[in-house]
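Hey, quick one: can you model this chain's 3D structure?
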Amino acid sequence: MTYPNDSRYGAVVAYIGPRCRVIVDERGWGWNLQTRAKRGTRVVWNNKTGLLRSRSNLARIIPGYLHSSYMAEEGITQEFIDRTLQGTMPDTFTEAYGHKVLAEGGVIRR
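Sure thing. Here's the predicted structure for all 110 residues.
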């Protein structure tokens, strides 16, 4: 699923509505949670937390980084977050998984 004004970063593994996403860190070390913001005419993605290696920990902390009105507008619940992450991510992050996602997305590791 892609959203308007999305960046071209190829290692996005999950979207939590149009203004929140989970990516594989560009070095392949873990998952990063990012939120989208507008800076003038550009759209930027800001890291909120990073290098997480457990899907359940990531699912548990996401609501703390999202405004309650955004969650209500988009119909985001803990159940929605859990289902979204379970459908696209393994239980535990491994470097092999990270490197595979980066390679498939055309992201050059640093």
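One thing worth noting: The mean pLDDT is 90.
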